[in-house]
Amino acid sequence: MHILESRLAAAVAVFAVALGLTACGGGTVGGGGNGGEVTTAKAGPVSGKLTISNWPGYIDPGKEGTVAEFEAKTGVSVDYIEDINENEAFFGKMQPLLEQGESGGRSIFVVADYMAKQMHDLGYLQNIDHADLPTAFENLQPSLRSPAFDPKREFSLPWQSGMTGIWVDTSKAPEIHSINDLFDPKYKGKVTMLGELRESVPLTMLAEGIDPGKASNQDWLHAIDRIKAAADSGQIRHFTGNDYTEDLNAGNIVAAIGWSGDASLIENPNAEWRMPTEGCTLWSEDMVIPVGAPNTAAALDWMNFVYQPKVAADITEYVLYISPVDGVKELLETRNPELAKDQLVFPSEQFTRKCSSQDSPPDLEPVNEAWQAVITG
């Protein structure tokens, strides 16, 4: 989820550094449903049907929304599915298909950087040719062009960036500002955490004064033990994906670890996203084209379409995440000046100074096993 001449450019630079998640990507990979050879998505005449899997509340809806506008421009029929609640759960659903070289009819997924890297390394994604995406790469923020997980942007294109922090029901718990507050016994059964390893655990480490980017496996396991004790005691109501918004809307909880741009999904007028005292987690999610995608020409055309600054600005006004498209802030300074000043949409370097990337542990397997044991009970 920027313009070079503004404070936001500095924030984007922070994102670019922070989003170096794991080993460098690119090149030929083995495994998966493509026989060990990376294919490149093919451009061509745009027609037919385009199916996109994305997260809830991640695009402007309606008859004048981006999907409808794309359909009117191209004649393509878009099946836009909001079926991603968690990265790992979506991967688990799709992997059996992808292993057979199939995509379930989908031509675009939107997943986190680390998941895009994982999928590509398994041979589940197609590469993209920059020559087929002139609008996208012309308008992509320069600071997002060479992330460590995909330094040449061979297989991914950012959809949005954002921050993970705390959603608080200010009518019930106005004093919550720290991740440590979520462990206070007076909120027993009234807080939720995200079920993704790279979300709740790094925030817990930050609350303990540990930089997740420098943390040892023992640091990760210690934070998991703390979360496990809270879950076992009933302190944590449950672990969620994007559906934490439902608990906030229903008044079931006083606070949730959640994402900065989800205001469009939260109907509770007292809910407020807060930067944790110790800092947030910074992340980005990307459009990728899976193996077996039935309409790569339309997928590539969609990527170019949503990278037009005006279209991207329309999306930003609704989703309230950080756009990767250069020129969005200039447009919004004219038509929505208040939003152009919003630190959740155009964060300054000062605002994100304490934040960490969406880091992975040094040795993933034992940490992930410990985490799965917690979230599955």
Task: List unreliable stretches of 5+ residues.
Answer: 1-35
- The assigned CATH architecture of the largest domain is 3-Layer(aba) Sandwich
Q: Could you describe the largest sheet, including whether it forms a barrel?
A: 10 strands, mixed
Helix content: 25-40%
> What is the arithmetic mean of pLDDT?
91
CATH class (first level) name of the largest domain: Alpha Beta
> Which term fits the overall shape?
globular
Number of domains in the coordinates? 2
Continuous helix count: 13
How many individual β-strands? Answer: 10
Indicate the radius of gyration in whole angstroms: 20 Å
CATH evolutionary superfamily of the largest domain: Periplasmic binding protein-like II
- Beta-strand percentage range: 15-25%
What's the end-to-end separation, in Å?
Answer: 33 Å
Give me the secondary-structure category: alpha/beta
CATH topology category name of the largest domain: D-Maltodextrin-Binding Protein, domain 2
The helix-strand sequence is HEHEHEHEHEEHHEHEEEHHHHH
How is this structure best described in words?
The chain is of the alpha/beta class and 377 residues long. It has 13 helices and 10 strands. It folds into 2 domains: 7-161 and 283-340, Periplasmic binding protein-like II (D-Maltodextrin-Binding Protein, domain 2, 3-Layer(aba) Sandwich), CATH 3.40.190; 162-281 and 356-375, D-Maltodextrin-Binding Protein, domain 2. Helix 2 (66-74) links the parallel strand 1 (49-53) and strand 2 (77-81). The longest helix is centred in the middle third of the chain and has 17 residues, at 217-233. The two termini are 33 Å apart.
